[in-house]
């Protein structure tokens, strides 16, 4: 029988889509119907098909946001041009299968899980043979489960670069074709952990420096361990946040390139990364004073509250972001056994609120450029841009005012030889805060202003000048 006359049957999860709908649905359940997470174990007791049926009742997909495998799409289009019948054969529920088939617009027929029959593995093979006959169809799949289908297909088309899977598929079928899929490299995992964001955790060293403990090696070691613990804990949160924000990230012009949103890294790997990173962070925290462990736990609880709910609450979200920055200061103080001063905490809260406002302003500006009214996953509208700018700029200027008042405190004259040099810092800070808002207004600031500052040469010059003024105040 001519291969070009056979129907082309295509799997959905991991083949047509670069992701798995069942995994996606579980994370969407956490946002669209949180009680479902507690019911999920009981649903599983009744079988996988029942779980999928319940998920269809509580989870609604935006099919336009899901990442398609463009190489598979190209093969489908070639087959259609040759007049072949295209069938979507998937273990996903029929409701989802029909939704994605309608969105793609290339399928003539849909076969999917219905009621208590999970259309996967042997069940899928039986249905396809019943519909098209033994060796009467070609099948595109991507996992070892599909070997049971390839044994009955005319041609096994493997949408994967897994050598073991390709070898087994070759033994299972009379003919073989391969659609290579690029695997995630080390850079993808580094990006998923957002290692560049670890720069924020340098804040844990601030209390040690402010307490003039540079000559205390135990404080330096404790602060270094705190930095590692906070970085791993933060990465655990970043991964969880990305898993929960898949849909909104895919609608963002830059966040859509994140490894989980782009399906570069499988979601199940992210599920494993979250507890492992957190466990290592807690293990390191146990080596430090108990107060640090308490602060780390509170920080994690705050980030969880932010990720699940508070990030969608106007103003509350930026207050939480500023608070999370300040928690790093408090954690550093707990690790180094020092008490942070009122001036340090006050300055931190205002400057971090300023940075949080810039972050939201930049995200909202991207939304305006995309001709949308509201930011995906946020509670703001484009009409809030002027308010965010005024509040953020006020917070930034307020932080400079607090620093200026601090220069009048008795502690300053006790620790610095020449306070005159410190009075050069307020105008430097005023310049930096004002320029950062100017850049944000022009749309030149990334989502995270801290990352922008590290790449911005003028911000680095400001940092160098500030360090020079402090050193001059100490030694001159």
Can you tell me about this structure?
- There is one protein chain.
- The protein has helices at residues 12-16, 21-32, 36-44, 48-58, 70-81, 94-104, 122-132, 147-150, 163-172, 186-193, 206-210, 217-244, 246-250, 267-285, 290-308, 316-336, 342-369, 385-406, 410-415, 425-441, 449-455, 457-475; strands spanning 8-10, 86-93, 109-113, 138-141, 155-158, 175-178.
- With 476 residues, it is mainly alpha-helical.
- The chain has 3 domains: 3-178, Rossmann fold (3-Layer(aba) Sandwich); 190-326, UbiA prenyltransferase (Tetracycline Repressor, domain 2); 341-476.
- The chain has a 6-stranded parallel β-sheet.
- Helix 8 (147-150) links the parallel strand 4 (138-141) and strand 5 (155-158).
- Helix 12 runs antiparallel to helix 16 (316-336), helix 17 (342-369) runs parallel beside helix 20 and helix 18 (385-406) packs antiparallel against helix 20 (425-441).
- It starts with 7 loop residues before the first strand and ends with a helix.
- The model has no long low-confidence stretch (mean pLDDT 88).
């Amino acid at each position: 029988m001519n291969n070009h006359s056979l129907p082309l049957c295509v799997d959905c999860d991991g083949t047509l889509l670069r992701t798995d709908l069942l995994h996606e649905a579980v994370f969407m359940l956490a946002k669209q119907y949180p009680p479902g997470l507690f019911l999920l174990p009981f649903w599983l007791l009744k079988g996988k098909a029942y779980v999928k049926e319940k998920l269809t009742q509580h989870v609604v997909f935006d099919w336009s946001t899901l990442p398609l495998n463009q190489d598979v799409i190209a093969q489908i289009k070639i087959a259609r041009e040759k007049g072949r019948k295209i069938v979507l054969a998937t273990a996903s529920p029929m409701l989802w299968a029909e939704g994605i088939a309608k969105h793609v617009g290339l399928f003539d027929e849909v076969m999917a899980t219905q009621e208590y029959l999970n259309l996967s593995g042997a069940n899928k093979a039986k249905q396809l043979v019943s519909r098209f006959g033994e060796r009467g169809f070609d099948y595109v799949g991507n996992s070892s489960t599909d070997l049971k289908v390839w044994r009955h297909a005319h041609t096994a088309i493997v949408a994967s670069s897994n050598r073991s899977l390709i070898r087994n598929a070759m033994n299972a079928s009379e003919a073989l074709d391969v659609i290579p899929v690029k695997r995630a490299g080390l850079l993808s995992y580094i990006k998923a952990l957002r290692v560049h964001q670890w720069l924020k955790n340098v804040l844990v060293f601030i209390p040690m420096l402010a307490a003039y403990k540079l000559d205390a090696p135990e404080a330096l070691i404790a602060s270094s361990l705190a930095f590692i613990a906070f970085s791993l804990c933060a990465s655990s949160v970043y991964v969880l946040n990305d898993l929960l924000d898949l849909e909104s990230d895919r609608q963002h012009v830059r966040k859509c390139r994140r490894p989980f949103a782009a399906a570069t890294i499988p979601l199940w790997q992210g599920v494993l990364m979250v507890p492992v990173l957190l466990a290592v962070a807690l293990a390191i925290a146990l080596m430090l004073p108990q107060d640090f462990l308490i602060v780390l736990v509170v920080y994690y609880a705050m980030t969880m509250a932010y990720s699940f709910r508070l990030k969608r609450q106007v103003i509350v979200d930026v207050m939480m972001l500023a608070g999370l920055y300040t928690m790093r200061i408090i954690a550093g103080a707990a690790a180094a056994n020092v008490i942070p001063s009122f001036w340090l905490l006050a300055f931190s809260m205002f400057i971090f609120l300023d940075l949080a406002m810039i972050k939201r302003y930049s995200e909202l500006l991207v939304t305006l450029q995309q001709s949308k009214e509201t930011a995906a996953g946020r509670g703001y509208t484009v009409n809030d841009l002027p308010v965010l700018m005024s509040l953020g700029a006020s917070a930034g200027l307020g932080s400079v005012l607090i620093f200026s008042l601090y220069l009048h405190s008795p502690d300053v004259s006790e620790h610095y030889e020449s306070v005159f040099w410190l009075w050069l810092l307020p105008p430097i800070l005023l310049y930096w805060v004002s320029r950062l808002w100017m850049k944000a207004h022009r749309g030149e600031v990334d989502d995270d202003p801290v990352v922008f500052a590290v790449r911005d040469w003028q911000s680095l010059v400001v940092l160098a000048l500030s360090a020079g003024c402090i050193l001059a105040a100490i030694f001159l």
